[in-house]
Amino acid sequence: MPMPHRTFAEVAKRRLVGKEGSERIATIRALLAELPGYRNGPYADLRKSLEGELERTRVRAKVVHRDSLQVRREGAAQIALVGPPNAGKSSLLQALSDIQIKTGDYAFTTLRPVPALTRIGGVLVQLVEIPGLIDGAHEDRGGGRALFGVLRNADAIVYCRAANDSSDAFDVVRSEVAAAGIEKPSIVALTKADEADDLDLARTSVAGNACVEEVTQAPVVVRVSVLDDQSLDSLREAIWSLTGLIRVFPSRDGRTDEEPFALPAGATVAELADRVHHELGASATGALVWGASARFAGQRVGRGHVLVEGDVVEVLGR
Ligand SMILES: Nc1nc2c(ncn2[C@@H]2O[C@H](COP(=O)(O)OP(=O)(O)OP(=O)(O)O)[C@@H](O)[C@H]2O)c(=O)[nH]1
Ligand SMILES: [Mg+2]
Q1: What is the mean pLDDT of residues 14-42?
Q2: Residue 210 pLDDT > 50, yes or no?
Q3: Which ligand is located closest to the Cα atom of residue 158?
Q4: Strands of 136-273, DSSP E
Q5: How high is the pLDDT of residue 213?
Q6: Ligand 2 center to residue 172 CA distance, Å?
Q7: Do 54 and 18 reside in the same domain of the chain?
Protein backbone atom coordinates (compact mmCIF):
# COMPACT_ATOMS: atom_id res chain seq x y z
CA MET A 1 0.00 0.00 0.00
CA PRO A 2 1.52 3.33 -1.00
CA MET A 3 1.45 6.16 1.51
CA PRO A 4 -1.78 8.25 1.23
CA HIS A 5 -1.08 11.05 -1.24
CA ARG A 6 -1.75 13.84 1.25
CA THR A 7 0.67 12.26 3.71
CA PHE A 8 3.21 11.94 0.93
CA ALA A 9 2.77 15.59 0.00
CA GLU A 10 3.25 16.58 3.64
CA VAL A 11 6.34 14.37 4.00
CA ALA A 12 7.77 15.80 0.78
CA LYS A 13 7.20 19.34 2.03
CA ARG A 14 8.90 18.57 5.33
CA ARG A 15 11.90 16.91 3.74
CA LEU A 16 12.45 19.88 1.44
CA VAL A 17 12.26 22.52 4.15
CA GLY A 18 15.46 24.53 4.39
CA LYS A 19 17.20 22.62 1.58
CA GLU A 20 18.71 24.35 -1.42
CA GLY A 21 20.92 23.54 -4.39
CA SER A 22 22.27 20.03 -4.88
CA GLU A 23 20.87 18.83 -1.56
CA ARG A 24 17.36 19.90 -2.59
CA ILE A 25 17.76 18.30 -6.01
CA ALA A 26 18.88 14.99 -4.43
CA THR A 27 15.91 15.05 -2.04
CA ILE A 28 13.42 15.72 -4.86
CA ARG A 29 14.92 12.86 -6.89
CA ALA A 30 14.62 10.50 -3.90
CA LEU A 31 10.98 11.54 -3.42
CA LEU A 32 10.22 10.98 -7.11
CA ALA A 33 11.72 7.50 -6.85
CA GLU A 34 9.44 6.67 -3.90
CA LEU A 35 6.28 7.96 -5.60
CA PRO A 36 3.88 5.28 -6.95
CA GLY A 37 3.88 5.42 -10.76
CA TYR A 38 0.18 6.14 -11.42
CA ARG A 39 -0.45 8.10 -14.59
CA ASN A 40 -3.50 9.94 -13.35
CA GLY A 41 -4.92 11.24 -10.12
CA PRO A 42 -3.27 12.73 -7.08
CA TYR A 43 0.01 10.81 -7.33
CA ALA A 44 0.47 11.94 -10.94
CA ASP A 45 -0.21 15.52 -9.79
CA LEU A 46 2.40 15.14 -7.07
CA ARG A 47 4.89 13.85 -9.62
CA LYS A 48 4.23 16.83 -11.86
CA SER A 49 4.63 19.28 -9.01
CA LEU A 50 7.87 17.65 -7.82
CA GLU A 51 9.24 17.70 -11.37
CA GLY A 52 8.37 21.40 -11.57
CA GLU A 53 10.14 21.99 -8.26
CA LEU A 54 13.19 20.13 -9.58
CA GLU A 55 13.31 22.43 -12.60
CA ARG A 56 12.87 25.58 -10.50
CA THR A 57 15.62 24.47 -8.11
CA ARG A 58 17.97 23.90 -11.06
CA VAL A 59 17.23 27.36 -12.41
CA ARG A 60 17.75 28.96 -8.99
CA ALA A 61 21.06 27.16 -8.56
CA LYS A 62 22.31 28.72 -11.80
CA VAL A 63 21.32 32.28 -10.94
CA VAL A 64 24.03 34.31 -9.27
CA HIS A 65 22.60 36.27 -6.36
CA ARG A 66 24.46 39.48 -5.80
CA ASP A 67 22.59 42.02 -3.73
CA SER A 68 19.37 40.13 -3.78
CA LEU A 69 18.24 38.80 -0.45
CA GLN A 70 15.31 36.80 -1.74
CA VAL A 71 13.54 34.52 0.65
CA ARG A 72 11.66 31.63 -0.92
CA ARG A 73 8.10 31.46 0.36
CA GLU A 74 7.08 28.35 2.23
CA GLY A 75 4.01 27.54 4.26
CA ALA A 76 0.55 29.09 4.18
CA ALA A 77 1.70 32.66 4.86
CA GLN A 78 4.85 34.71 5.28
CA ILE A 79 5.18 36.90 8.37
CA ALA A 80 8.09 39.30 8.84
CA LEU A 81 9.68 39.95 12.23
CA VAL A 82 10.75 43.57 12.21
CA GLY A 83 12.32 45.66 14.93
CA PRO A 84 15.42 47.48 16.07
CA PRO A 85 18.69 45.61 16.59
CA ASN A 86 18.78 43.48 19.74
CA ALA A 87 14.97 43.47 20.06
CA GLY A 88 14.92 39.68 20.37
CA LYS A 89 13.82 38.81 16.83
CA SER A 90 16.18 35.84 16.41
CA SER A 91 15.29 34.57 19.86
CA LEU A 92 11.59 34.58 18.92
CA LEU A 93 12.32 32.90 15.60
CA GLN A 94 14.20 30.19 17.47
CA ALA A 95 11.56 29.77 20.17
CA LEU A 96 8.78 29.41 17.58
CA SER A 97 10.57 26.99 15.23
CA ASP A 98 13.23 24.29 15.05
CA ILE A 99 15.83 26.62 13.58
CA GLN A 100 19.18 27.20 15.30
CA ILE A 101 20.23 30.80 14.88
CA LYS A 102 22.80 33.01 16.52
CA THR A 103 21.39 35.36 19.13
CA GLY A 104 23.48 37.86 21.03
CA ASP A 105 23.30 40.71 23.43
CA TYR A 106 24.49 43.19 20.87
CA ALA A 107 23.20 44.87 17.71
CA PHE A 108 23.43 43.35 14.22
CA THR A 109 23.82 39.72 15.30
CA THR A 110 21.75 38.83 12.26
CA LEU A 111 22.83 40.29 8.94
CA ARG A 112 20.54 38.71 6.37
CA PRO A 113 16.85 37.86 6.42
CA VAL A 114 16.40 34.43 8.00
CA PRO A 115 13.31 32.31 7.33
CA ALA A 116 11.95 29.60 9.60
CA LEU A 117 8.73 27.62 9.69
CA THR A 118 6.44 27.55 12.66
CA ARG A 119 3.39 25.33 13.11
CA ILE A 120 0.23 27.11 14.20
CA GLY A 121 -2.76 24.88 14.89
CA GLY A 122 -1.47 22.31 12.40
CA VAL A 123 -0.61 24.81 9.65
CA LEU A 124 2.94 25.75 8.67
CA VAL A 125 3.56 29.50 8.61
CA GLN A 126 6.84 31.07 7.53
CA LEU A 127 8.48 33.64 9.76
CA VAL A 128 11.27 35.83 8.40
CA GLU A 129 13.57 37.90 10.59
CA ILE A 130 14.32 41.19 8.85
CA PRO A 131 17.49 42.44 10.52
CA GLY A 132 19.28 45.73 10.53
CA LEU A 133 16.60 48.29 9.69
CA ILE A 134 18.21 51.51 10.79
CA ASP A 135 17.69 55.25 10.52
CA GLY A 136 17.80 56.11 6.83
CA ALA A 137 17.04 52.56 5.68
CA HIS A 138 14.39 53.84 3.24
CA GLU A 139 17.24 55.68 1.48
CA ASP A 140 19.15 52.39 1.31
CA ARG A 141 21.30 52.96 4.39
CA GLY A 142 22.49 49.64 5.77
CA GLY A 143 21.28 47.90 2.61
CA GLY A 144 17.75 48.99 3.45
CA ARG A 145 16.41 48.73 -0.09
CA ALA A 146 17.04 44.99 -0.33
CA LEU A 147 15.62 44.45 3.16
CA PHE A 148 12.47 46.35 2.27
CA GLY A 149 12.28 44.24 -0.88
CA VAL A 150 11.94 41.18 1.31
CA LEU A 151 9.50 42.93 3.62
CA ARG A 152 7.29 43.94 0.70
CA ASN A 153 6.74 40.28 -0.12
CA ALA A 154 5.53 39.40 3.36
CA ASP A 155 1.84 39.05 4.12
CA ALA A 156 2.03 40.73 7.52
CA ILE A 157 4.44 42.14 10.08
CA VAL A 158 5.21 41.42 13.72
CA TYR A 159 6.97 44.51 15.06
CA CYS A 160 9.30 43.47 17.87
CA ARG A 161 10.11 45.83 20.68
CA ALA A 162 11.96 44.96 23.86
CA ALA A 163 9.56 45.70 26.70
CA ASN A 164 12.29 47.40 28.70
CA ASP A 165 13.51 49.54 25.83
CA SER A 166 12.16 53.05 26.09
CA SER A 167 14.57 54.49 23.53
CA ASP A 168 13.23 55.77 20.22
CA ALA A 169 14.81 52.91 18.21
CA PHE A 170 11.42 51.24 17.76
CA ASP A 171 9.76 54.41 16.48
CA VAL A 172 12.64 54.87 14.05
CA VAL A 173 11.96 51.43 12.57
CA ARG A 174 8.24 52.15 12.32
CA SER A 175 8.80 55.43 10.51
CA GLU A 176 11.39 53.87 8.16
CA VAL A 177 8.86 51.21 7.15
CA ALA A 178 6.23 53.90 6.66
CA ALA A 179 8.69 56.02 4.63
CA ALA A 180 9.33 53.00 2.41
CA GLY A 181 5.58 53.01 1.71
CA ILE A 182 4.98 49.59 3.24
CA GLU A 183 1.65 49.02 4.92
CA LYS A 184 0.67 45.54 6.07
CA PRO A 185 -1.50 44.05 8.75
CA SER A 186 0.64 44.13 11.87
CA ILE A 187 0.90 43.50 15.59
CA VAL A 188 3.46 44.53 18.18
CA ALA A 189 5.32 41.89 20.18
CA LEU A 190 6.66 43.34 23.43
CA THR A 191 9.64 41.03 23.84
CA LYS A 192 11.72 40.06 26.88
CA ALA A 193 8.61 40.57 29.04
CA ASP A 194 10.32 38.55 31.81
CA GLU A 195 12.92 41.28 32.17
CA ALA A 196 10.51 44.19 32.25
CA ASP A 197 8.92 45.67 35.34
CA ASP A 198 5.43 47.17 35.41
CA LEU A 199 6.68 50.64 34.69
CA ASP A 200 8.55 49.41 31.59
CA LEU A 201 5.48 47.59 30.36
CA ALA A 202 3.24 50.60 30.90
CA ARG A 203 5.67 52.85 29.06
CA THR A 204 6.32 50.63 26.08
CA SER A 205 2.72 49.40 25.71
CA VAL A 206 1.44 52.94 25.55
CA ALA A 207 4.19 54.10 23.22
CA GLY A 208 3.66 51.02 21.04
CA ASN A 209 -0.08 51.64 20.93
CA ALA A 210 0.23 55.27 20.03
CA CYS A 211 2.55 54.37 17.23
CA VAL A 212 0.45 51.57 15.79
CA GLU A 213 -2.74 53.58 15.85
CA GLU A 214 -1.42 55.83 13.12
CA VAL A 215 -1.37 52.87 10.76
CA THR A 216 -4.21 50.60 11.84
CA GLN A 217 -7.35 51.14 13.83
CA ALA A 218 -7.03 48.24 16.24
CA PRO A 219 -3.50 47.79 17.52
CA VAL A 220 -2.75 44.42 19.05
CA VAL A 221 0.11 44.25 21.53
CA VAL A 222 1.28 40.84 22.72
CA ARG A 223 3.70 40.55 25.62
CA VAL A 224 6.06 37.72 25.07
CA SER A 225 9.10 36.09 26.62
CA VAL A 226 11.02 33.20 25.15
CA LEU A 227 11.05 31.76 28.69
CA ASP A 228 7.24 31.61 28.86
CA ASP A 229 5.57 29.00 26.63
CA GLN A 230 2.10 30.40 27.26
CA SER A 231 3.14 33.81 25.96
CA LEU A 232 4.63 32.12 22.88
CA ASP A 233 1.30 30.35 22.26
CA SER A 234 -0.55 33.66 22.53
CA LEU A 235 1.86 35.14 20.02
CA ARG A 236 1.26 32.19 17.69
CA GLU A 237 -2.49 32.78 17.82
CA ALA A 238 -2.01 36.51 17.22
CA ILE A 239 0.17 35.67 14.22
CA TRP A 240 -2.53 33.33 12.94
CA SER A 241 -5.10 36.15 13.09
CA LEU A 242 -2.68 38.29 11.09
CA THR A 243 -2.63 35.79 8.22
CA GLY A 244 -6.36 36.28 7.60
CA LEU A 245 -6.61 32.56 6.87
CA ILE A 246 -9.06 30.00 8.23
CA ARG A 247 -8.38 26.38 9.24
CA VAL A 248 -10.78 23.83 7.77
CA PHE A 249 -10.66 20.09 8.50
CA PRO A 250 -11.61 17.69 5.71
CA SER A 251 -13.44 14.56 6.78
CA ARG A 252 -14.26 11.32 5.02
CA ASP A 253 -16.31 8.31 6.13
CA GLY A 254 -16.57 9.73 9.63
CA ARG A 255 -12.81 10.22 9.99
CA THR A 256 -11.52 13.78 10.30
CA ASP A 257 -8.01 14.76 9.22
CA GLU A 258 -5.87 16.09 12.06
CA GLU A 259 -4.12 18.52 9.75
CA PRO A 260 -6.33 21.32 8.52
CA PHE A 261 -6.20 23.11 5.20
CA ALA A 262 -5.45 26.81 5.39
CA LEU A 263 -7.83 28.77 3.18
CA PRO A 264 -8.43 32.47 2.65
CA ALA A 265 -11.27 33.87 4.75
CA GLY A 266 -14.51 33.58 2.80
CA ALA A 267 -13.47 30.37 1.04
CA THR A 268 -16.25 28.10 -0.18
CA VAL A 269 -16.80 24.34 -0.25
CA ALA A 270 -15.75 24.37 -3.93
CA GLU A 271 -12.42 26.03 -3.06
CA LEU A 272 -11.73 23.49 -0.32
CA ALA A 273 -12.57 20.63 -2.72
CA ASP A 274 -10.18 22.09 -5.29
CA ARG A 275 -7.39 22.24 -2.72
CA VAL A 276 -7.97 18.62 -1.70
CA HIS A 277 -7.75 17.69 -5.35
CA HIS A 278 -8.43 19.47 -8.65
CA GLU A 279 -10.73 16.70 -9.84
CA LEU A 280 -12.75 16.91 -6.66
CA GLY A 281 -12.90 20.67 -7.18
CA ALA A 282 -14.63 20.08 -10.49
CA SER A 283 -16.91 17.25 -9.40
CA ALA A 284 -17.95 18.38 -5.91
CA THR A 285 -21.69 18.86 -5.62
CA GLY A 286 -21.70 20.08 -2.04
CA ALA A 287 -20.70 19.00 1.43
CA LEU A 288 -21.75 17.99 4.90
CA VAL A 289 -20.55 20.55 7.42
CA TRP A 290 -20.00 20.45 11.17
CA GLY A 291 -18.95 23.64 12.90
CA ALA A 292 -19.74 27.32 13.15
CA SER A 293 -20.84 27.78 9.54
CA ALA A 294 -23.44 24.98 9.82
CA ARG A 295 -26.92 25.60 11.23
CA PHE A 296 -26.83 22.07 12.70
CA ALA A 297 -24.24 19.30 12.85
CA GLY A 298 -23.79 17.59 9.52
CA GLN A 299 -25.82 20.14 7.54
CA ARG A 300 -25.93 19.48 3.80
CA VAL A 301 -24.70 22.55 1.92
CA GLY A 302 -23.96 23.48 -1.69
CA ARG A 303 -20.67 24.21 -3.47
CA GLY A 304 -20.94 27.92 -2.81
CA HIS A 305 -21.34 27.57 0.97
CA VAL A 306 -18.88 29.85 2.79
CA LEU A 307 -16.74 28.06 5.39
CA VAL A 308 -15.39 29.52 8.62
CA GLU A 309 -12.52 28.79 11.02
CA GLY A 310 -12.64 25.30 12.52
CA ASP A 311 -15.29 23.80 10.21
CA VAL A 312 -15.20 20.05 9.60
CA VAL A 313 -16.21 19.34 6.01
CA GLU A 314 -17.06 16.18 4.13
CA VAL A 315 -17.03 17.06 0.45
CA LEU A 316 -19.64 15.20 -1.60
CA GLY A 317 -18.69 14.30 -5.14
CA ARG A 318 -20.62 13.00 -8.09
N1 LIG B 1 15.44 37.62 29.31
C2 LIG B 1 15.18 37.53 28.00
N3 LIG B 1 16.14 37.79 27.11
C4 LIG B 1 15.85 37.70 25.79
C5 LIG B 1 14.55 37.33 25.34
N6 LIG B 1 14.56 37.35 23.99
C7 LIG B 1 15.80 37.69 23.63
N8 LIG B 1 16.59 37.92 24.69
C9 LIG B 1 18.02 38.34 24.69
O10 LIG B 1 18.14 39.54 23.96
C11 LIG B 1 19.36 39.57 23.23
C12 LIG B 1 19.11 39.89 21.78
O13 LIG B 1 18.39 38.84 21.20
P14 LIG B 1 18.41 38.51 19.63
O15 LIG B 1 17.35 37.48 19.45
O16 LIG B 1 19.78 38.22 19.15
O17 LIG B 1 17.92 39.91 19.04
P18 LIG B 1 17.75 40.33 17.50
O19 LIG B 1 16.58 41.24 17.44
O20 LIG B 1 17.71 39.13 16.64
O21 LIG B 1 19.06 41.18 17.28
P22 LIG B 1 19.85 41.50 15.89
O23 LIG B 1 19.86 40.28 15.06
O24 LIG B 1 21.20 41.88 16.40
O25 LIG B 1 19.12 42.64 15.28
C26 LIG B 1 20.02 38.21 23.45
O27 LIG B 1 21.00 38.33 24.47
C28 LIG B 1 18.88 37.34 23.93
O29 LIG B 1 19.30 36.30 24.77
C30 LIG B 1 13.54 37.06 26.33
O31 LIG B 1 12.37 36.75 26.06
N32 LIG B 1 13.91 37.17 27.64
MG1 LIG C 1 18.88 38.59 15.10
Answers
A1: 88
A2: no
A3: 1
A4: 156-162, 186-191, 221-223, 245-252, 255-256, 261-264
A5: 44
A6: 17
A7: yes
Separation CA 158–CA 268 (nearest Å): 29
Interval 55-66: pLDDT, tens: 988 877 766 544
Compute the distance from residue 278 Cα to the ligand 1 centre, in Å.
45
Q: Give the DSSP per-residue string, 43-56.
A: HHHHHHHHHHHHHH
Q: Are residues 169 and 201 in the same domain?
A: yes
Give yes or no: residues 221 and 258 share one domain. no
Question: Domain count of the chain?
Answer: 3
The predicted pLDDT at position 64 comes to 52
Distance (Å) from CA 161 to ligand 1 centroid: 10
225-244 pLDDT tens trace: 999 999 999 999 999 999 99
Residues with CB under 6 Å of ligand 1 are 83, 85-91, 103-105, 107-110, 131, 191-192, 194-195, 225-227
Range of the domain at 287: 245-317
Q: What is the mean pLDDT of residues 208-235?
A: 75
- Ligand 1: atom nearest CA of 81 is 19
Among 96, 102, 103, 172, which residue has the most ligand 1 atoms within 8 Å of its CB, making it the best to mutate?
103
Distance 64 CA to ligand 2 centre (A): 25
